[in-house]
Write a structure and sequence with these properties.
Elements lengths: L8 E9 L5 E9 L2 E7 L2 E8 L4 H11 L9 E7 L4 E6 L1 H13 L1 E4 L17 H17 L8 E7 L2 E8 L2 H14 L8 E4 L5 H10 L3 E4 L5 H9 L3 E4 L7 E2 L8
Parallel strand pairs: 3-6, 10-11, 11-12
Antiparallel strand pairs: 1-2, 3-4, 5-6, 8-9, 8-10, 12-13
Helix pairs in contact: 1-4, 5-6
Length: about 260
């Protein structure tokens, strides 16, 4: 991988066609995607399709969302090999033992979805105008990013009306992982915080938010039916601001009062 991809963008040749339909050769930067192997304590666990920028937050977010670590101190080190496309992770012994146990007890090995306890409290409630204000802040953040035209998915985490971390990516789940990882690397626990996305949630993404202890998600698109079922089980309120100024609450409606 050459140095031009380390920022998450790669240079490619394109043909630009204007109103007169005359094609012109040009150079453009696009998201640089590669398949990285995640090696945890010497053993390959999975692969991650991603751009190599902000890689630590991406890996930490993945570890947290997959239930492999519960706190940042479980994550000891990361060695990134851009030539071999390897992400070598060193975990604390307790976390490594938990990962080993999951491989034997999970429904489909390491990558199954083992059951986990509900982690949120019932305390957080927001007024509709507070939801709208957070959605407005998030939209301004997205429009202000220089990479917004290329890295089109954005996720963030907030508390007390303030956005605390964000992650962007050309895969929705990678944006979610990066935002979560940025939060954890900053020493902030994700439990009982609010996620914001410019996309709708799937079952898998909702499971990962619930596993991290997130209690509300404000999205720019509706969730899937399976996501709503999971969200209700884990007291996670999914709110969409997709249509005009209307707020639609899909799960745990008592959080929006």
């Amino acid at each position: 991988m050459n140095s031009e991809t380390t920022t998450g963008l790669a240079k490619v040749e394109v043909i630009r066609i204007d109103e007169t339909r005359i094609g012109e050769a040009a150079v453009e930067y696009v998201p640089a995607e590669a398949e990285f192997k995640i090696v945890i304590n010497g053993r390959i666990e999975t692969t991650l399709h991603c751009a190599p920028h902000r890689i630590k937050s991406l890996v930490v977010g993945w570890l947290m969302a997959e239930g492999i670590i519960d706190r940042e101190i479980d994550f000891l080190a990361l060695d990134t090999d851009l030539d071999q496309l390897l992400l070598r992770v060193t975990l604390a012994r307790e976390a490594a033992v938990a990962l080993e146990a999951r491989a034997f007890t999970g429904p489909v090995g390491s990558f199954g979805e083992p059951a986990f306890a509900r982690r949120v409290t019932t305390e957080l409630e927001l007024k509709p105008e507070q939801v709208a204000e957070l959605a407005s802040q998030f939209k301004k953040l997205f429009l202000g990013l220089r990479s917004s035209e290329r890295m089109c998915y954005l996720a963030a985490f907030a508390q007390n009306g303030e956005i605390q971390s964000y992650g962007e990516g050309f895969h929705r789940v990678n944006a979610l992982y990066r935002a979560l990882g940025e939060l954890v690397v900053a020493g902030v626990a994700p439990a009982n915080r609010i996620a914001l996305t410019n996309f709708g949630l799937t079952r898998q993404m909702t499971l990962r938010l619930a596993r991290a202890g997130v209690c509300m998600a404000i999205c720019a698109a509706p969730p899937s039916s399976a996501a709503i079922e999971i969200a209700n089980d884990y007291y996670l309120s999914i709110v969409s601001t997709a249509i005009g100024g209307r707020i639609t609450v899909y799960s745990a409606p008592w959080r929006v009062v």
